[in-house]
Amino acid sequence: MTALAGQCARALARPPFRWRGELVRQSASILRASLPAAMLSIAAWGFAGPGLQAGNFLVEFGALDRSGGFMVVAILREFGTYVTATVVAGIVGTMFTAELGARRVRGELDALSVLGVDPVRELVAPRVLALVLCMIGLDLFALVCGVFGGYLATTVILGGTRGEFLASFFANTTPLDVIGSVVKVAIFGGLVGVICAYYGLNVEGGAAGVGRAVNRAVVGCLVAIFLVNLIYTQWFLSAFPQVSVLR
Questions:
Q1: What whole-number distance in Å separates Cα of residue 233 and Cα of residue 166?
Q2: Per residue in 16-49, pLDDT tens?
Q3: In a domain, 245, yes or no
Q4: Is residue 186 part of a domain?
Q5: Is the dihedral of CA 65, 67, 72, 73 positive or negative?
Q6: Rg of the Cα trace of the chain?
Q7: Are 27 and 138 in contact (CB under 8 A)?
Q8: Are 47 and 153 in contact (CB under 8 A)?
Q9: Residues 166-200: pLDDT tens digits?
Q10: By CB atoms within 10 Å of each CB, which of 62, 129, 168, 179 scores lowest?
Q11: Of residues 208, 187, 198, the one with CA closest to residue 88
């Protein structure tokens, strides 16, 4: 997988840049397939998770006015990126693995190699880059939807005021939170692309092998996202301790 990631980086950095058209097509396909699911998932989670559950906890201490600040921790730093990555891995990653696996089974990838066409340059690299770029856009949309879900739970269900929620949210939101979220989700996009491409390119055993590759790709993506999220969060809080201060 590391070697494949290096091949993708070299293919994207070296001319000719014939992959630009494929990048546009794949980006449109990714957004069309995953944008509704990502927005709905994080909005529902923001409403039910940090919105209702954490909101009820804050009500017990008379601190519902702090719910906006809690959304920064829950949505911007953690679950916005995590939910977006898992949704994309389940929807787009499986499609990516199945497509490459089917081409491997039918012998199309071998035929491209015989013709002197590099499958990594033509098929894999543009999809990995499209996943990275689209994941950033999806994350920004998902963050807005997640915070809006928490806002509805706080103001409509729990009786909080709009002013208190927004004041607490913007007081605790810093450029570091947004940048950290974008960088993390970009890493997730690269992980999903490389892992799914690896399993798709190495399918064996016909149609049944494609099914096994899809299953392994999803499991690999979820494990990698969890581990990288854990390491990245620890590094982020250690490198920028000022973000842990509740204002």
A1: 25
A2: 888 888 889 999 999 998 888 888 888 887 888 7
A3: no
A4: yes
A5: positive
A6: 20
A7: no
A8: yes
A9: 898 888 888 888 899 999 999 999 999 999 999 99
A10: 62
A11: 187
Angstrom distance (rounded) from CA 79 to CA 93: 19
Structure tokens at 141: 């949309």
Closest residue by Cα to residue 153 from 78, 74, 84, 85: 74
**Helix axes of 175-201 and 206-239: crossing angle, nearest 10 degrees:** 160
228: which 2 tokens?
A: 């990288």
Q: Which domain holds residue 25?
A: 2-9+19-237
Phi-psi region for residue 62, left (φ > 0), alpha (ψ -120 to 50) or beta? left
Find where tokens 């064996």 sit.
204
Please say whether the dihedral angle defined by the alpha carbons of residues 161, 166, 167 and 168, taken in this order, is positive or negative.
positive
Nearest to 68 by CA among 80, 84, 54, 79: 54
Lookup: tokens for 73: 């921790």
Residue 246 DSSP SS3:
coil
Count of domains observed in the chain: 1
Say how far apart CA 103 and CA 26 lie, in whole Å. 17
Residue 200: which of 92, 114, 113 has the closest Cα?
92
pTM, full prediction: 0.91
Structure tokens that stand for 93 in this block: 């990653």
What's the rounded Cα separation, in Å, for the pair 245 and 174? Answer: 11
> Per the domain annotation, does 166 fall within a domain?
yes
